[in-house]
Amino acid sequence: MTKVSFPIIGSYDIPALYLLTHALNVTVIKPPPITSKTINLGVKYSPDFVCTPFKYTLGTMIESIDKGADTLIQLGGGCRYGYYASLQEKILLDLDYKIKVFNLVTAGKPSLRRITKIFKEIDPDFKKVKLFYYGFITLKMVKYMDKIDDYIRENGAFEIEKNSFKNLREEMLKEFSKTKGIINLYKTYKRYLEKLKKIKIQKPDNYLKVGVIGELYTLMEPFANNDLERILMENKISIKRYTTATYLLLKKKNIMKKVLKKLKIIKYNLGADAADNVYNTKVLCDNNYDGIIHLKSAFCTPEIGVMPIISKIADSKDVPVLFLTFDSSASEVGVRTRLEAFFDMLEMRRDK
After folding, report:
1. What is the pTM of this model?
2. What are the percentages of helix, strand and coil residues in the chain, rounded to 5?
3. How far is 315 from 334, CA to CA, in rounded Å?
4. pLDDT (tens digit per residue) in 145-181
5. 224 with 53: CB under 8 angstroms?
């Protein structure tokens, strides 16, 4: 039987596992959590100047193959990352791994026809109706996960009992992975949302609010950004992050048309998430956020190009921006040092 795996990003392996397990008659191998071993493998076999997400996902692929996978599914993005599946497959074949790599997304756009064709190739007995049914449940699961995470980002910093939000979220994700249908999923989501809202918090009137923007993989994979959101919450900071799987899969296409109409500072889509981040910078400034943190991986061309525009908008509104670049050698100590200086500055500005 075909053994399928995929690169991991955040907690989205849970809906991905659910979809693949139910829609295909294959053995699905859960990708291992990202560790220093993962990035070391990716760095060892990647071109030097390729972006960091390429290295993380390649490392995960190798670890999944070592667990028995012979078929890998990749989600290409709207930048160079859209071509990485082909390059990663060539690297793996050169390493004498007998595998196939499929890319579900081209030019940053998921195509139902393409997904159906790939699933049919992976599983000749695949039925399209399964993709529609379980795909709908999977999208709902992603949407519910993102709603829960938005609530935690806003309030998690002010919990009275440490790890209350984290522990309840982990419990919820285990329940999501066992969901028996759309009604069961909805009831589970509503039950845990009510539990989250009952967690006691102590939110001061003048708490700090920080928006986090940047390249999607670095934003959404905690290991890739040294668990930045956890550090922010430890410092009693409320977080706003627009880039989620819900946004990328369901909202981005329509929003981008409006963005380019509303933004006079740019006329064209800048590739990947760059134009989105320009727009989000303006929204955060207009909503009186205390600061903005921009994350990107090393060698991320769209985000490098957009940094001066983000600075210009933030400067005009007197909102501080911290630019952080992450690569395979980034350490949490170095990130914490820069963040603590940024937090001190935000607190001084607030007190004034």
Report:
1. 0.94
2. 60, 10, 30
3. 25
4. 999 999 999 999 999 999 999 999 999 999 999 999 9
5. yes
